[in-house]
Amino acid sequence: MIYPSIDIIYDKPKTIKKNICEKFDIDSKKKLLFFTAKNFEKSGIKEFIQIIASLSNNNYHVLIAGDKREITTLKFKMSKINMFEHITLIEDYENINELFLESDIFILLS
Hints:
The protein is about 35% helix and about 20% strand. The protein is of the alpha/beta class. The radius of gyration is 13 Å and the shape is globular.
């Protein structure tokens, strides 16, 4: 179990990462950073994107998952920056546990 926020057994099967990377067309050799929250604005999505924009290493890919409203708003705000090659926005993903399991680093804020 990943305590205290997520009630799943931590098991890092390579097949999950491979499947997720294929599904979203991501290089599986990159480190995956995962961000999710109930309210992006209150949870610091702007600051998170500023931090990843300042990274000098390009060996990462960011997954940001949320409901349709949050993702639509974020797409509009992100249209002003050129980060889409490093970021995949995922709306209303059915099995969020897969995203936690396949990520190298995750940020969960509620």
